[in-house]
Amino acid sequence: MPSALTYPGVYVEEIPSGVRTITGVATSITAFIGRAARGRVNEAVTINSFADFEKQFGGLWSYSTLGFAVRDFFLNGGGQAIVVRLYHSDPANQNANPPVADTAARSRFWRGALANGAPACASV
């Protein structure tokens, strides 16, 4: 029923709508998908800190930006992350994804890549 206002000829009538309000959700949760030095493959893993990421996936790794993105997420106030590690082994090229992120493995990887004709300024 319209309610009469103090101005002549002006009436306001509120009609109920079937539209529901938008429910608020947490914005401090995100998902990351990428390559990591170790961890479960093709499985979503929930982590609550960068220390959890280091324990599960090996921390920062020079062959992938995933660790850096997760670290920056938590440094900027992120609360929870869901990480999926991707891995594809290529039997034809065993040096394509070194299993460990140590200096000796990187050195062997680049010596092998350069010997096989890879460009010197490759982005991995």
Can you describe this structure?
It contains 3 helices and 5 strands, in the order ββββααβα. By secondary structure, it is an alpha+beta fold. The strands form 2 sheets. A 3-stranded mixed sheet has the order 3-5-4, covered by helices on one side. Strands 1-2 form a two-stranded antiparallel ribbon. A hairpin with a 6-residue loop joins β1 (3-4) and β2. The protein is elongated and about 85 Å long. Mean pLDDT is 76; it is low at 117-124.
Short summary:
The chain is of the alpha+beta class. The chain contains three helices and five strands, in the order ββββααβα.
Q: Gap between N and C termini, in Å? A: 68 Å
Q: By helix and strand content, what is the structural category?
A: alpha+beta
The neighbouring-strand order within the major sheet is: 3-5-4
Main sheet summary: 3 strands, mixed
The quaternary state of the protein chains shown equals single chain
User: What portion of residues belong to β-strands?
Assistant: 15-25%
Number of distinct helices: 3
Could you estimate the helical fraction of the residues in percent?
25-40%
Instruction: Give, in order, the helices and strands.
Output: EEEEHHEH
Poorly predicted residue ranges: 117-124
